[in-house]
Amino acid sequence: MPKRIFDIDLGPTQPLKVFSEAEAEAEALAKQWLAVYGKDMKGANTEAFMWHVFSGGRYPSLSGEDSLAKYKEQVAPEYIVLSNNKLRAVSTNLLPLPEVCYRRDYYVFPSNLAWTMAFTHESGWLGPYFATHPCYEPLNKKNLEAFRAKVRKIQEAEEAKRNGWV
Length: 166
Prior knowledge:
By secondary structure, the chain is of the alpha+beta class. The protein is built from four helices and nine strands. It has helices spanning 25-37, 52-55, 64-72, 136-162; strands spanning 4-5, 8-9, 17-18, 62-63, 79-83, 89-92, 106-109, 115-119, 129-132. The chain has a seven-stranded antiparallel β-sheet, sandwiched between helices. Strand 1 (4-5) and strand 2 (8-9) form a beta hairpin. The mean pLDDT is 85.
């Protein structure tokens, strides 16, 4: 059964972590996100929607179908899903697909912020937006290595079960 978190259907995965609103963990994630993607946010109303840095041209990004295609290519050991209101966030081990995250404003990114996908309620007119960190290549290489290590670990555990070792 799919797991829903703040109106986002995470599909077949369960959340790895639900970030505490009481401890302002989601707000801290939003500050980290803005430190990378919102450096030149003058004139962009990021209080209302952080993705205004993209729609206002303050940070380079892909939009529309191009952004979705690039987003679907990404791999990481885990993904953070952050609500636009900066109050809720969850991490998951599967990349949330836009078909299950309809008409909401939220951001998906790996923990090292190598890239981000901003889904907007204006999708089709404004967004979605895909952007990369200024140090994308080395950060994304780390994501790929960690993802491959995670897959190997899962495969080794499955082999151990099949062979009766555990």
